Q: What sequence folds into this?
């Protein structure tokens, strides 16, 4: 690694180390025919871009200085050449990960010329780095990057968004729970509510099965009515458990909560009449998460 003194002497700050992970291609290059998730398409490491731009700008400016522009790269201190090699290597990996082939190619050429030495001068390298910088700006300018609000970013790409207990009790709802979290992070509030209702529908079906209430193709109102009737009649069941009163209270409250959600949100979402604000989506996300976590203590798919 380069000593800081050499970097300062040539007007370059050493970039911070990247987080190293398993070596792999970005998903659309690794297999161009497989499905790519929204997270893979939109996730963007601004820190790596800042490091790449820092290297390009500072290295280009320093190498273009008149006093060293005509010096061959091979004549520079060995540790400084290692610094340029390391910077070029990081730049190539960043471009490859982002699918920026037209930027990766000249960066790779710079890396090869530094390794080969010969008559490759500091000024020539400065010009090539400036060209790479322009290409990088042009290519990234063609793309759209989304910035997530800090309080929502934690929901983006979240696994087991409502907790392990919900994941294990209601695995069929996992897709919609995940999509609800994604949509909430991206401020797609109505889509968030839509997926929350789909996730709850899984719970409602399992709830209905618990009390042998038909639910196939039935609307929420009739299913909840059937559940409430069955819960009220728990005391008349000769095979009732010793804690039936505790269960009756639990399931009665759960059915009432589902009815409230159905009347307040589900009907309007299902019939395309509802449009939801940030506050409404957040309130429902919290409510449905609490509801599913509570149901997971007594029900299982």
A:
């Amino acid at each position: 690694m380069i000593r800081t003194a050499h970097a300062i002497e040539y007007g370059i700050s050493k970039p911070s180390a990247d987080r190293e992970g398993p070596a792999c291609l970005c998903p659309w290059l690794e297999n161009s025919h497989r499905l790519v998730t929204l997270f893979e398409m939109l996730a963007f490491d601004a820190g790596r871009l800042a490091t790449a731009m820092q290297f390009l700008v500072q290295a280009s400016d320093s190498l273009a200085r008149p006093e060293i522009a005509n010096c061959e790269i091979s004549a520079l201190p060995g540790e400084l050449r290692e610094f340029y090699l390391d910077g070029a290597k990081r730049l190539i990996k960043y471009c490859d990960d982002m699918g920026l082939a037209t930027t990766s190619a000249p960066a790779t050429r710079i890396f090869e010329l530094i390794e080969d030495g010969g008559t490759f001068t500091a000024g020539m390298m400065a010009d090539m780095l400036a060209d790479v910088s322009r290409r990088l700006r042009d290519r990234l300018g063609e793309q759209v990057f989304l910035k997530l609000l800090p309080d929502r970013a934690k929901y983006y790409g979240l696994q087991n968004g409502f907790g392990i207990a919900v994941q294990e009790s209601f695995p069929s709802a996992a897709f919609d729970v995940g999509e609800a979290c994604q949509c909430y992070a991206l401020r797609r509030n109505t889509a968030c509510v839509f997926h929350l209702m789909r996730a709850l529908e899984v719970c409602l079906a399992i709830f209905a099965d618990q009390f042998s209430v038909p639910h196939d193709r039935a609307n929420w109102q009739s299913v909840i009515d059937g559940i409430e009737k069955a819960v009220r009649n728990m005391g008349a069941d000769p095979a009732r458990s010793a804690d039936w009163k505790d269960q009756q209270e639990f399931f009665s409250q759960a059915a009432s909560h589902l009815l409230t959600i159905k009347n307040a949100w589900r009907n309007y979402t299902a019939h395309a009449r509802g449009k939801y604000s940030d506050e409404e989506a957040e309130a429902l996300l919290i409510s449905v998460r609490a509801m599913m976590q509570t149901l997971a203590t007594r029900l299982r798919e």
About this structure: Residues 238 and 256 are 25 Å apart (CA to CA). The two ends are 55 Å apart (CA to CA).
